[in-house]
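tool_call predict_complex ligand=nicotinamide-adenine-dinucleotide
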Amino acid sequence: MTVSRRATGPGRARGRGVPDATVARLPLYLRILRALAEQGTSTVSSEELAAAAGVKSAKLRKDLSYLGSYGTRGVGYDVAYLVYQVSRELGLTQDWPIVIVGIGNLGHALANYGGFASRGFRVAALFDADPRRVGELVEDHEVLPMGELAPVVGELGAAIGVIATPAGAAQGVCDRLVAAGVRSILNFAPAVLAVPDGVAVRKVDLSIELQILAFHEQRNAVPGPVPDGAGSGPGELVQTGRRSRA
Amino acid sequence: MTVSRRATGPGRARGRGVPDATVARLPLYLRILRALAEQGTSTVSSEELAAAAGVKSAKLRKDLSYLGSYGTRGVGYDVAYLVYQVSRELGLTQDWPIVIVGIGNLGHALANYGGFASRGFRVAALFDADPRRVGELVEDHEVLPMGELAPVVGELGAAIGVIATPAGAAQGVCDRLVAAGVRSILNFAPAVLAVPDGVAVRKVDLSIELQILAFHEQRNAVPGPVPDGAGSGPGELVQTGRRSRA
DNA sequence: CGGTCCTTGTGAACGAACGCACAAAGTCGC
DNA sequence: GCGACTTTGTGCGTTCGTTCACAAGGACCG
Ligand SMILES: NC(=O)c1ccc[n+]([C@@H]2O[C@H](COP(=O)([O-])OP(=O)(O)OC[C@H]3O[C@@H](n4cnc5c(N)ncnc54)[C@H](O)[C@@H]3O)[C@@H](O)[C@H]2O)c1
Ligand SMILES: NC(=O)c1ccc[n+]([C@@H]2O[C@H](COP(=O)([O-])OP(=O)(O)OC[C@H]3O[C@@H](n4cnc5c(N)ncnc54)[C@H](O)[C@@H]3O)[C@@H](O)[C@H]2O)c1
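tool_result ok
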């Protein structure tokens, strides 16, 4: 199915073929590393970093080893240097303009959200199909009509698009984003999107998250004693218990 | 490590030990099944359902097989019956009151969101620490002060809590929710939560999603040709390509 | 009522991810 | 400069998840 992943097996060469599960955790490590840097910590061990991230230290070390050998045995990792390396691997050394389509409840919250800029993302344009929304000023951006989507995306060179429209409109919006040149989409609408090859989609579905929690509520309620731990990783169903630090 | 999962290996007994990966997909199947039911479809094959969900039919069949044998060979699955069975497995036959803490940008959007009720979830109470927010009326709910959290959660019997506060306040809010009796938490704040055993946490982190997309943007941009597909499931890094429809 | 066709359910092979445990590598004290 | 100590990086076994491929089960037709 995939063409040529996994360069050299488990010990794949530096930078090539970082496993999906690892990629999904890197942003978490990065956030913690940045916090450590900000509070003046210059060095951190895999044990400490792993504890802060809620993973086992061996997993963390293996994750980092896919990027290269950036640690010092007997000491740990240099925080600033690791921040740089992880950022580079994730492509955060550059600026990513993003566009948001569907400026309703959720779209407004997203547009107002300050957590983007700090990570190299920049809300560059907002779009909505409703004429009453168009022209509205949200966080120093004017809401633009859908007709402007293609030209503006092209001009900005925006590669990432966020869909915050109702589910029924999502596929149509997605098609227009793709046609305009967007190749990565973050979808908040509860809909399965069909996209051509080469376009990446990630979805955030609140309702699904709640249903998964409901499942565990029911599970823990029915049998009686035994809670139940779960695996780890991005597919980790639920965290159950986590002590320690930071 | 875990106490007694996986009852009988791959062929585990009905209802016992549904794999995490499967549980994470059931809500998606359920949504599609409900849509089919609404449009009058009474029967669906694994092939059709899988296509609508964006998974392989074998995976879908195996997922459903963990719930029992609810299909009819040569025909497919009865939509209404399957909706019931999946709902039951997920614990959606009962009503789940949820509380939201932190009624800022995101909290407002969540409180206004209509997609909850339709799935058996009901926003039962809103809380905020800011005195200026307290008393505000959001979607027929008055925002309550944090002091009310424990008694109200207890009275409502709310088992699910949503955290939409700034990251710095998340752990404290989490502790209070747990102390009040909440055993499932959906966390929107970019923070790793420490919880006692038996409490389930799921996180939704926008910033992480965007960074994963950035990674793939960079990946696809640098090497040149080969796009790159990925696995499937909740841990699926990105969807890449997906044809067809519903 | 028997044959044919269709779709499910699953055994088994494969692959990805995790965790253990340890050797290699470097630091620090003396 | 040497030895003891600390922590990384990773080989290996295990678990979990996905995919293939097919036999078994049932509907439907004649
Ligand atoms: N509000 C939430 O907290 C929340 C939570 C989870 C998921 N969601 C999902 O996010 C999406 C948006 O939710 P919301 O509450 O903001 O809804 P909303 O109705 O407030 O906003 C939707 C916006 O999309 C615009 N729109 C509709 N069709 C469009 C089109 N074809 N092109 C461009 N814009 C279009 C509408 O004009 C509106 O402004 C929905 O799919 C919802 O299910 C929302
Ligand atoms: N706005 C978004 O679109 C968005 C997107 C992704 C993630 N987030 C995250 O969601 C969280 C909320 O974001 P927001 O934009 O709504 O922020 P916000 O500042 O608008 O709202 C935060 C709310 O939490 C309340 N609060 C603060 N401390 C509290 C405490 N100890 N107890 C109870 N309430 C408290 C504040 O009074 C405020 O009303 C943040 O962690 C943010 O990183 C927001």
